[in-house]
Design goal:
Layout: E1 2-4, H1 18-26, E2 30-32, H2 45-56, E3 59-62, H3 70-80, E4 84-87, H4 98-105, E5 109-110, H5 114-120, H6 124-131, H7 140-147, H8 157-164, H9 168-180, E6 184-187, E7 190-193
Parallel strand pairs: 1-2, 3-4, 4-5
Antiparallel strand pairs: 6-7
């Protein structure tokens, strides 16, 4: 996992993301910045760093975006770099969905579930193989969270963080990894363990 900053590496912005930055590093991720150490955040830095974000990715998924959103800048740069662009539709009259709707009209693939995203990325066969026990199980930290998840009820990341006794940011990172690897799925705004997990 990687995060690209619009400030120097020792100037996490906004400040409340410090816990998330620490969690990324603790999970063998990386923080990147092309700016000098101690460089303050500036509005021009964020669109500039977006080319690095899109360049690091195989594809870009836009979940929410207004028509003047930096996410649309990232999507445009991704297209220029030959990356796939996906978008999640939202409420028709919501300003935060208008950017996604424009991307879809212009040819971005519509993503309405994690299964659709997995299929678009060509990962569905790998995901099914993991579900059937054909590849390695999650590490002990991931298994610990899975063990605390009920088999039937979907729980929010906040609820799971309380049960797991970890920060919401760290819990969400683990949940996203587990979802992409096919061990959990989202249901009704929460997460549930895949029933066939062994």
């Amino acid at each position: 996992m990687a995060a690209v900053l619009g400030s120097g590496l020792d100037r996490i912005y906004p400040a409340h993301n410090q816990g998330l930055a620490t969690s990324i590093l603790e999970h063998h991720g990386v923080l990147l910045s092309e700016l000098e150490p101690d460089s303050p955040p500036h509005k021009r830095h964020f669109p500039e760093r977006n080319r690095i974000i899109s360049g690091l990715c195989d594809a870009v998924l836009v979940v929410e975006a207004s028509l003047r959103s930096g996410s649309l800048i990232t999507a445009r740069m991704a297209l220029e770099q030959g990356r796939d662009v996906f978008a999640v539709p939202g409420a028709v009259f919501s300003p935060s969905s208008q950017g996604c709707h424009r991307l879809i009209r212009e040819g971005a693939a519509l993503i309405d579930s994690i299964d659709t995203l997995v299929q678009e990325l060509g990962l569905d066969a790998q995901r099914e193989e993991r579900r059937e026990g054909g590849t390695e199980m999650p590490d002990s930290l991931h298994q610990s969270l899975l063990a605390k998840m009920p088999g039937n009820d979907a729980l929010s990341p906040e609820h799971l963080a309380t049960i797991f006794e970890r920060s919401v940011e760290e819990t969400l990172l683990i949940l996203i990894e587990l979802e992409l690897r096919g061990f959990v799925v989202t249901r009704d705004g929460g997460y549930i363990r895949v029933p066939t997990l062994r």
